[in-house]
Specification:
The complex is a heterodimer of chains A (499) and B (319).
Chain A lengths: L2 E12 L2 E12 L3 E5 L6 H8 L7 E6 L9 H7 L1 E4 L11 H5 L6 E2 L2 E2 L1 H14 L15 H14 L4 E5 L7 H16 L3 E5 L3 H7 L2 E6 L2 E7 L5 H9 L17 E10 L3 E9 L3 E5 L6 H8 L7 E6 L2 E3 L4 H6 L2 E4 L3 H5 L6 H5 L8 E2 L2 E2 L1 H14 L16 H13 L5 E5 L7 H16 L3 E5 L3 H7 L2 E6 L2 E7 L5 H8 L4 H4 L1
Parallel strand pairs in A: 3-9, 3-10, 5-8, 8-9, 14-21, 14-22, 17-20, 20-21
Antiparallel strand pairs in A: 1-2, 1-4, 6-7, 10-11, 12-13, 12-15, 15-16, 18-19, 22-23
Helix pairs in contact in A: 4-5
Chain B lengths: L1 H14 L1 H16 L6 H26 L7 H18 L5 H26 L3 H20 L9 H8 L1 E2 L2 E2 H19 L1 H11 L1 H6 L4 H26 L11 H11 L11 H21 L3 H26 L1
Antiparallel strand pairs in B: 1-2
The chains are: A alpha/beta (499), B mainly alpha (319).
C-alpha cells in the first residue's frame, strides 16, 4: 500500500515546555488512522505541524512524496492535505458553492462563474450522497450538513489526506452513520484519514489503526482489532481507571423540584418531571430534542410559555437567571467558553461572579473576602491554576470546567443542572467531575444531567427521562437504562407503542 | 528571587507602558523646547486635557461593555447650549438649577441611548449615531444657529476660575476620574461592567442584569457629557450649537491610546487619562514650537495606531 505520510522523531517545544518529544506517526492510502490522547497530549500540535501552522524543532517528515514541510495551511490544502476542524468556520451568508470554492473561485476575467461553481459543487455533493442545493446559504444548514460541505471542499482540492478533529462532537447519531459511510467511501478511493476523537465506540467502529500519545510522547500504534477500550484508557492515562463512574451512595429524599406541563413553542411540549434531594436525573435525547432549551427555561434564561415550577413544594416564578440563582438553582452550561466564562477575566473574577453582590458592602466589592472564597473553592476542586489572577482563557478544558463549577458551588445551590458536563474534557478530568457530581448528590443536592454520551448518562443517572422533538417519550430506571432503550425512545417510539 | 523580581519589574513596566511613553514624550519635548517644561505650561496642558478627560471617563465605561457612544460631542452641544439659553432667559435662576438643566438633558440623552441599546436592541453604533445627529440638530434649531452671548459672571466662572490656585477644570477632571476609577475597580457594578464586556451571555447566566448594566453606562456617559457641555460653554463664555464637534473622537482616541479595548472587557480610566494627556501634549508642544496645526492631525493618527499596535503585540506574545 502507498504510504501517504511519515512523521518521525518530531520534537516541538514552546519556551521551556516540551509539547512533543520524538513522536512518530504515519498514514497509508485507504486507511483510517485514529490519533488519540488526553487534552494536552500533543495531538493538535502534531496536526498543526503537518498543516504548516507550526514549525517542527526537529525530526523528519514526508508528505505525499515530498520531504518539505508546509509553511501554511493554504499550501497544505493545495498540496492535498485538508483538515476538518472541530469548530467549523463557514461564511454563513455565502452559498454552499461559494464556501466550497472560497479562495479558488472559478472565474471569467474578474468575475466569478457562479454556474460553473455550482455545477461542480453539485458533483462533489453527489459523490458524498448529500442532497443539498449548492445555491443554499450556509446559514440554513445543520452542523452535520456544514461538515459534509467541508468534506466536499476537501474533495474539491483533491485531498489525499483528510484530518478530522472530533467530527462527531456536535452531530446526531443518525448523522454519525452518514459520516461513517462517507469515510468508508473515501477510504475506498484511496484517501487516508486521520481521525481524532475521544469516543471509544466510534474508534472501534471506524478506525483501522490507533496511535496513542501521552504528555507529548508516543505510546504505541496498533491495529484496532488487536485492542480493547481498556488498553486505550490505560495507554492514554498511564494508569488504569477501573471504575470511572463512582458508585452511587446518595440518599434520595423529598421532592425538591417539580416541573408541570412545561411548554415553549417550537422547543418542548408539556414536559412533567420531579427531582428529589440527592437524586441524579438524566435527560436524554438527540440534538434538537429540546433538552437544553427545557433547562434554559427552568433556569429562567428563556421564557416558560406554559407550565409551572415548584421548588420544595412551593410554586415559584422564575423569570430570569437572577431569580433562579435566588432559588438556589445552578446551571452548568453546555458551551462553557460561550456561556459559562468570561475568558478575558481572571480565575477569581469568574469564580466569584455569581456571589459577588453578597460579598459586597454598600456596593463595594470586598476583594479579600472574594479572594479567600475563590481560593478555597478552586483548590477544593483540585483545579490547576498558577494563581487567582490567571486569565481563564489560558486554562485547559477540564480546568475551565472546574472554574465554572466553583462559580456555582460558591452559591451553595440545592439544584444543579449539568448540560454536557464533560464535553471536550480528557478522561482523567472526566473522572474527577463525576466524583464531584457524586459528592454533591451525597450532600443532598438535586442533580440534573444532560449528556449526549450515553455511557456517561447511564453511568451517572439513577433515572433517565427521554425527549424526542420536544416531547417526553418515556422514563427509564435501573436496569431499563440501556443504550438500546434510550435510543428507541429518543428516536420517537413511545414505550406503549413498543410493548 | 532575582529572576522573579526582574519579572515583576517587567510586568510593572508592561502594565504602565503608556505612562512611560508619556514621560519619555515630556522629557524629549522639554529638551527640544525649554518653554514646554514650565509649571504653568504643564498645568495648562492638564487644563486643556480636562474636558476630553471628563467625557473620556464616560466613554471608557461604554467601551468596556463592548459598546460605543458617538453622541458625546453633540450631547455636549445640546446640554451646554440649552443651559446657556436658560441662564440668559431667566437671569434670576440659581446657577445650580442651570447646571441641573444641562446635566439632566445629558442624562436624558444617555437614557434614550441606553434604552435603545439594551431594551430595543439597536447596535450601539447605530443608536448613538442617530442620537449624535439629533442632539446636534436640536440646539441649532433652538438658537437658529446663532451663538448665545451675555452669560452671567457666575456661569462663566464655572470653568474659568481657580480654587486655591488650581484651575476649576482640573478639579472637575480629578473628581470625575477618581469617581470613575473607584466605580470600575472597587464596586460590584464596576465588576459587572467588565463582565458584560467580557462575555455578555455568561454574565446574564450568572445572574447579572446585563440590560441594566448597559443602561447605566449610557446614562453615566450622558451625564458626563452634560457636565462637559456646560464646562465648554462656560469656558468660551457662550452657548453655541456647533460647539464640541468631534469630541467623541477625542474621547475614543484617548481611551484607545490608554489601552481600553474596542471589543470590551478590558481597560481602565487611568490609562484613558494618560491617553488624553498624550494627545494634549502633542497639540500643546506643536503650538509652542509653531508647527502648522494640520500636522497635528497626522501625528495624532499615527500615535493612535502605534499605541494599539503595541497593545496587539503585547497580547500576541502572551498567547
Amino acid at each position: 500500500m502507498e504510504k501517504l505520510l511519515e512523521m518521525k522523531e518530531i520534537c516541538k517545544s514552546f519556551g521551556t515546555n516540551n509539547v512533543l518529544k520524538n513522536v512518530q506517526f504515519d498514514l497509508f492510502a485507504g486507511e483510517v488512522h485514529a490519533l488519540i490522547g488526553e487534552n494536552g497530549a500533543g495531538k493538535s500540535t502534531l496536526m498543526k505541524i503537518l498543516m504548516g501552522m507550526y514549525k517542527k524543532d526537529s525530526g523528519s517528515l514526508s508528505v505525499l512524496g515530498s520531504d518539505e514541510a508546509y509553511t501554511n495551511p493554504d499550501q497544505a490544502l493545495k498540496a492535498g492535505v485538508a483538515m476538518i476542524h472541530q469548530e467549523l468556520n463557514p461564511i454563513p451568508d455565502m452559498s454552499v458553492a461559494e464556501n466550497i470554492f472560497l479562495g479558488k473561485e472559478k472565474r471569467k476575467w474578474i468575475f466569478t462563474s457562479k454556474k460553473e461553481q455550482e455545477k461542480e459543487s453539485k458533483r462533489y455533493l453527489d459523490m458524498l450522497g448529500i442532497d443539498l442545493e449548492p445555491s443554499v446559504l450556509m446559514r440554513e444548514l445543520s452542523v452535520s450538513e456544514m461538515q459534509m460541505v467541508e468534506i466536499a471542499k476537501a474533495l474539491s482540492y483533491g485531498a489525499r489526506i483528510i484530518i478530522m478533529d472530533e467530527p462527531t462532537s456536535a452531530i446526531t447519531e443518525a448523522e454519525v452513520e452518514k459520516l461513517f459511510q462517507n469515510i468508508k467511501m473515501l477510504k475506498e478511493q484511496g484517501t487516508g484519514i486521520i481521525y481524532i476523537s475521544h469516543k471509544m465506540d466510534e474508534l472501534f467502529e471506524i478506525s483501522d489503526r490507533i496511535t496513542v500519545l501521552r504528555d507529548g510522547q508516543y505510546v504505541f500504534s496498533k491495529k484496532t482489532k488487536d485492542l480493547c477500550p481498556n488498553d486505550l484508557i490505560k495507554a492514554m492515562v498511564g494508569r488504569e481507571i477501573t471504575e470511572i463512574y463512582p458508585e452511587s451512595k446518595s440518599k434520595i429524599g423529598e421532592v425538591i423540584l417539580k416541573v408541570k406541563h412545561a411548554s415553549r413553542k417550537g422547543e418542548f411540549k408539556k414536559i412533567d418531571f420531579e427531582l428529589r434531594k440527592g437524586e441524579k436525573l438524566g435527560i436524554a435525547g438527540l440534538m434538537g430534542a429540546g433538552r437544553t432549551e427545557l433547562m434554559m427555561a427552568v433556569f429562567g434564561a428563556a421564557k416558560l410559555e406554559e407550565g409551572e415550577i415548584e421548588i420544595g413544594g412551593v410554586p415559584v416564578r422564575i423569570q430570569s437567571p437572577k431569580d433562579a440563582i435566588r432559588q438556589k438553582i445552578a446551571l452548568v452550561t453546555e458551551d462553557r467558553k460561550r456561556y459559562g466564562l468570561n475568558l478575558t477575566a481572571s480565575v477569581e473574577d469568574n469564580a466569584v461572579s455569581v456571589i459577588e453582590s453578597s460579598l459586597s458592602k454598600f456596593g463595594f466589592y470586598r476583594r479579600k473576602l472574594g479572594r479567600k472564597a475563590a481560593e478555597e473553592m478552586i483548590s477544593r476542586m483540585n483545579t490547576k491554576v498558577t494563581g487567582m489572577d490567571q486569565i481563564v482563557g489560558s486554562l485547559s478544558g477540564g480546568n475551565m470546567q472546574k472554574v465554572v463549577l466553583s462559580k456555582w458551588l460558591l452559591n451553595d445551590p440545592d439544584i444543579i443542572i449539568f448540560d454536557e458536563p464533560t464535553r471536550g474534557i480528557d478522561v482523567g478530568a472526566k473522572a474527577e467531575i463525576y466524583k464531584i457530581i457524586e459528592e454533591l448528590a451525597c450532600k443532598g443536592k438535586g442533580i440534573i444531567i444532560i449528556s449526549s454520551e450515553m455511557p456517561e448518562l447511564i453511568g451517572l443517572s439513577q433515572r433517565i427521562i427521554v425527549l424526542h422533538e420536544g416531547e417526553q417519550t418515556g422514563e427509564l430506571r435501573g436496569k431499563e437504562m440501556t443504550q438500546e432503550n434510550i435510543m428507541t425512545l429518543a428516536s420517537g417510539y413511545r414505550k406503549e407503542e413498543k410493548e | 528571587m532575582k529572576v522573579l523580581s526582574k519579572n515583576s519589574v517587567m510586568e510593572f513596566v508592561k502594565k504602565t507602558a503608556i505612562l512611560w511613553v508619556m514621560i519619555i514624550l515630556i522629557l524629549i519635548l522639554s529638551v527640544i523646547s525649554p518653554s514646554f517644561f514650565r509649571g504653568q505650561n504643564l498645568l495648562n496642558i492638564i487644563k486643556q486635557a480636562s474636558i476630553t478627560g471628563v467625557i473620556g471617563v464616560g466613554m471608557t465605561f461604554v467601551l468596556i461593555t463592548g459598546g460605543i457612544d458617538l453622541s458625546v460631542g453633540s450631547v455636549m452641544a445640546l446640554s451646554g447650549t440649552m443651559a446657556a439659553s436658560v441662564a440668559v432667559a431667566e437671569k434670576n435662576m440659581p446657577i445650580a438649577l442651570v447646571i441641573l438643566v444641562g446635566v439632566g438633558l445629558g442624562a436624558l440623552c444617555g437614557l434614550i441611548n441606553g434604552i435603545g441599546v439594551s431594551y430595543i436592541g439597536f447596535p450601539p453604533f447605530i443608536m448613538t449615531l442617530g442620537m449624535m445627529t439629533i442632539a446636534r440638530g436640536i440646539p441649532l434649531v433652538f438658537t437658529n444657529g446663532t451663538p448665545i452671548f451675555g452669560l452671567s459672571e457666575e456661569f462663566n466662572m464655572i470653568a474659568n476660575s481657580r480654587v486655591l490656585g488650581v484651575p476649576s477644570l482640573v478639579i472637575f477632571l480629578v473628581i470625575t476620574v477618581l469617581a470613575g476609577h473607584i466605580i470600575l475597580s472597587k464596586t460590584v457594578l464596576g465588576r459587572r461592567i467588565y463582565a458584560v464586556g467580557g462575555n455578555e451571555d455568561a454574565a446574564r447566566l450568572s445572574g447579572v442584569s446585563t440590560a441594566k448594566v448597559k443602561l447605566f453606562v449610557y446614562v453615566f456617559c450622558g451625564i458626563l457629557s452634560g457636565i462637559a457641555g456646560i464646562l465648554i460653554c462656560s469656558r468660551i463664555t457662550s452657548g453655541n450649537g456647533t460647539v464640541a464637534e468631534g469630541y467623541e473622537m477625542n474621547a475614543i482616541s484617548a481611551a484607545v491610546i490608554g489601552g481600553v479595548s474596542m471589543t470590551g472587557g478590558s481597560g481602565n480610566v487611568l490609562g484613558m487619562v494618560v491617553g488624553a494627556m498624550i494627545l494634549t501634549i502633542i497639540q500643546n508642544s506643536f503650538d509652542i514650537m509653531g508647527v502648522n496645526s494640520f500636522y497635528q492631525n497626522i501625528i495624532k493618527g499615527i500615535i493612535i495606531l502605534l499605541a494599539v499596535f503595541l497593545d496587539l503585540r503585547g497580547k500576541k506574545k502572551k498567547n
